[in-house]
Amino acid sequence: MSLILHCGARPINYDELRSIPVPDRNHRWVGKMGKTYEINRSERWEGLQHADFAEAIELGCNKLGMPIDMERTKWGVSEDGSDLFGHVKFQQEVDGKPTSVATYFKNDYEPSMGLRHSNRGKFSAQATIGGSVMVCDNLVITGTVVFRQKHTTHNMANIVDNARLGLVDYILGLPRLTGMVDGLKASCLTDQHVSKLYLEAGRSKLLPWSHLGQVDEYWQNPTHTEFTEGGYTGWRMYNAINTVAKKYNPSRQMDIVRKAEDIISNHCQTVNF
Prior knowledge:
By secondary structure, this protein is α+β, with helices and mostly antiparallel strands. 37% of the residues lie in helices and 21% in strands. It contains 7 helices and 10 strands. Helix 1 (50-63) packs across helix 3 and helix 6 (234-245) runs antiparallel to helix 7 (250-265). The longest helix has 28 residues, at 159-186.
């Protein structure tokens, strides 16, 4: 199962996105614990239909020669339908011809994109440069947000053009993804480095202290033998943190994965970015 959909979101297919209504400016909903929440927005606020966001991304990708692989792309929504999460994957070739992102498909990972959008005001519509690990579908995020759309009337009218411009930045940022992964694989973490890394991860609230023991378990015993190649590398730690991140809701998952590389690189013995 995709990291984005592992916990806290229910899966939904692309065609079903249109069926989810946009909430009113004055929106009330009931949370998991039965508590009632209410949002009252200004007249400038305009909701974004999940399908419109997805279609704007799809249209922009097609125009830039990087068509989405709809069969492998995963979509999910929050329990009340207000929040959308997507893990977008691309086609490597079409009719025997390579796409504009084909050169970034590697033996063990491929380019992908993390999407999220909230009609509850939790976050704007966003697209982030990322990749997918082949053996387990862990999400790799460079931390670069290439598209961010606020919920105002003016912005909603220009979402297609804004998405296309953001996707240009996505293509330009893909070398950063390759450099990040290669750097993590070329790095080395000693026991002393790992202890300091856990200390920073706990203090920075990347993960609760109680969950760092689980990270260490996956660090010592990776879920896939591919993560043991090269020994105790930053890539091995990155995927250990990824595995624990699957316990959280999709938005939190993306934040953890986005910040993990910075913390790991702070403690690696050698990093070649």
